[in-house]
Structures are given as structure tokens and as C-alpha cells.
Amino acid sequence: PKTHRVMTLADHISHIITQDFARNQ
Amino acid sequence: ACPVSAASRSGQQIWESFSQCFTPAVREVVEFAKGIPGFQELSQHDQVMLLKSGTFQVLMVRFCTMFNPEERTVTFLNGQTYPLSTLRALGMGALLDAIFDFSEKLGTLRLEPDEMALFMAVVLVSADLSGIVDMGAVEQLQEGLIRALHSLIHCRRPDESASIFPKLLLHLPDLRTLNNLHSDKLLAFRIDS
Fold first, then answer.
1. Do residues B34 and B126 make contact, with C-beta atoms less than 8 angstroms apart?
2. Which end of chain B is least crowded, N or C, by CB within 10 Å?
3. Residue of A8, A15, A17, A23 to mutate, testing the B interface (most B Cβ within 10 Å of its Cβ)
4. What is the ipTM score, two decimals?
5. Euclidean distance between CA atoms A20 and B24, whole angstroms
């Protein structure tokens, strides 16, 4: 069975931004 | 690029696919921000805070340019196209109505691409400033961008700038309201074992 992660749009935006800055450090 | 979802796809699959559309769009806003003169001179903390509070609002402005009014579809950056009826079926009705109202109002100003880009930069640095450490630096950046936007519109449309520029700035609180009302909408991502 598939597992789903549910998050708000605001949390998803926040996650992508944090990831991007961490990757570029 | 993917065509409009086939009828055979389940609501869950459409929801996952739609959720994933936001990822490249958010990354594009981050790259856009880095290109704003002066943005990367802010502390990294303040850059992140502005992006976290302003990205949804920039996406709403961006959304206006991704909407095809003749076809009544929206095309995201990854090439996925959705008819409005599909998006409404995902439960996004209230958000869509708000975005289309906003798109109509913004559309009447007939912004050129460079005006739209500079407006998006103003939107980003005018987002919620709670959590910002160096307020002076952010306010200086805001003032510079707002002056640049005013100057661009005035040079291009000297007869209209007195009416267009204030109307543009009045969209800023509309975008904050959209953010407060809708950024808590749920997305879903499949986690493969």
C-alpha cells in the first residue's frame, strides 16, 4: 500500500526553501 | 510535458500530481529572488524569512500568467495542464475563485512582462516582516524596488502612471489576504517504500 505525506502548501513552500538554501551552503 | 489528466486517473493521483506542481514553481521563485538586485546582500536568515512569507503571494501573481482564459486551464512549470473543473474537484474552489478574481483585477492593468517581474519583486520584499532581523536593510530594499517600479511605469505610460501605480500597490494587501486565507490548503505526496 502507498503511504502519503500530507502537508499544507505553506509548509511545503517552507520545506523547499529550507532545502534549497541548505543545498547551496 | 503531460497532457490534461486522463479520466482514468483517480482523484488521489490527480491530487498527488497537482501537489508536485508546486515544487518547481517554488524553486523558480527562489531563483527569481536571488536575481533581485540587493536581495542576496540581505542576511541568509532574512532572505529565507522573506521567501517563506512571500512565495505564496508571488505564486499567486505568477498564477495569473499561467492561466489560459480561453481554454479555462492552468499550466504549471512542469508542463502539467489542468482544467479548472479538475482543480475544483480537488476542493480548491475557494482558492481558485479568489485567484481568478485577483487575476481579473490585475489583468485590467495590462502589465508588460518586465513590469510584472518588478511587481513580483515588490510583492516578495513587502511580505510579512515579522521574524526579519535587519528591518532597515529590508525596508531600504523595498523602497528601492517600489521607486524602480514607479519609475518604469511612469516612463512607459506617463499619462496613466498616476492611476496605475496606486492600483498596483493596492493589490499588496489583497495578496496578503489570499495568503492568510489559503496557504493552509493541504497537499499530498506519495512516499514510496
1. no
2. C
3. A17
4. 0.85
5. 11
C-alpha cell at B84: 479548472
C-alpha–C-alpha distance, residues A8 and B110, integer Å: 32
Is the separation of the CB atoms in B171 and B57 below 8 Å?
no
Q: What is the DSSP letter of B79?
A: S
What local confidence, expressed as pLDDT, does residue B2 receive? Answer: 41
**Helix residue ranges, H only, B35-92:** 44-66, 84-87
Most B-contacting residue of A3, A9, A21, A24 (CB-CB within 10 A), to test interface: A9
CA distance B17 to B29: 20
For residue B48, the distance in angstroms to the closest alpha carbon of chain A comes to 7
Interface of A with B (CB under 8 A): 2-10, 12-14, 16-18, 20-21
Q: Are the C-beta atoms of B46 and B134 separated by less than 8 Å?
A: yes
Cβ contact (<8 Å) for A9 and B52?
Answer: no
Q: DSSP 3-state assignment of B126?
A: coil
Which amino acid, residue B186? L
| pLDDT per position as a tens digit, B103-116 | 888 888 889 999 99
